[in-house]
UniProtKB/TrEMBL annotation:
It holds the Pfam family adh_short. It comes from the Bacteria. This is 3-hydroxyacyl-CoA dehydrogenase. Coiled coil: none annotated. Belongs to the short-chain dehydrogenases/reductases (SDR) family. Keywords: Oxidoreductase. It comes from Blastochloris tepida. The keyword Transcription regulation does not apply. One of its GO terms (molecular function) is oxidoreductase activity. PANTHER family: 17-BETA-HYDROXYSTEROID DEHYDROGENASE 14-RELATED, SHORT-CHAIN DEHYDROGENASE/REDUCTASE. Residues 6-190 form the Ketoreductase domain.
Length: 253
């Protein structure tokens, strides 16, 4: 799909990987809606790229529906959705104070998995009504999984479950939406220099970087964005989960 002139929605677009994707899409001529739970962050990025700022909870059905309606009214029907919104809480199932609160597990799955599905279903419904492009496709959805979906570490039960769900739903949804010319793909990033990791001490960042075979450094958000752009432009990529991790395989701890 040619990105020029297409309408795109990026969730989690106010920072980190999502911000890199919004900037890359805008640089290619897309009209981008920047969605983030942090209204100020969404507004800042949207202002910088000339996009539309949206502040809503991705797992809230009615809020997401209202946001998609606004995008359609102000930018047009989206052909591109990139889901980068997500959270991570590191807690053991059995901690010093007893079993992990169920609400903690539920919140991570709600945002990461349910939130991704919520926006995907709305995007698919809108895309299916569009005229197909010359390639026969109507749209593309990229979800963000994680290497933790495959090698979850101690304390990552909720996070791994949520990202594993994204991996597991990629192929069946891609198969279902194929009849509409809508592709569904996922990226499973490793350790990236996002605001979360960027706030760690330099020695901790250096230690994490050493665990990556090659290149022995943290990934750059721009590299994630570059893969997302390629996925959008390569119409034969569908139903796949692509690891972007420098050959990293997470140890148990």
């Amino acid at each position: 799909m040619d990105i020029q002139g297409k309408v795109a929605i990026v969730t989690g677009g106010g920072s980190g990987l999502g911000r890199a994707v919004t900037e890359a899409l805008a640089a290619r001529g897309a009209r981008v809606a920047v969605a983030d739970r942090n209204a100020a962050a969404a507004q800042e990025v949207a202002g910088a790229i000339g996009g539309l700022a949206l502040a809503f909870d991705v797992a809230d059905a009615s809020a997401a529906e209202a946001a998609f309606a606004r995008v359609a009214a102000e930018l047009g029907t989206p052909r591109i959705l990139v889901n980068c919104a997500g959270i991570g809480v590191a807690k053991r199932v059995l901690g010093k104070d007893g079993p992990q609160p169920l609400a903690d597990f539920e919140q991570v799955v709600r945002v990461n998995l349910l939130g991704s599905f919520n926006t995907l279903r709305l995007a698919a419904a809108a895309m299916a009504k569009l005229e197909p492009l010359e390639t026969g496709e109507r749209g593309v959805v990229i979800n963000t999984a994680s290497v933790a979906a495959f090698e979850g570490q101690v304390g990552q039960a909720a996070y791994s479950a949520s990202k594993g769900g994204i991996v597991a739903m990629t192929l069946p949804i891609a198969r279902e939406l194929a009849q509409f010319g809508i592709r569904v793909i996922a990226i499973a990033p490793g350790l990236f220099l996002t605001p979360l990791l960027g706030g760690l001490p330099d020695e901790v960042q250096a230690s994490l970087a050493k665990s990556i075979p090659f290149p022995p450094r943290l990934g750059e958000p721009a590299e994630f964005a570059a893969l997302a752009l390629h996925m959008i432009e390569n119409s034969f990529l569908n139903g796949e989960v692509v690891r972007l991790d420098g050959a990293l395989r997470l140890p148990p701890r």
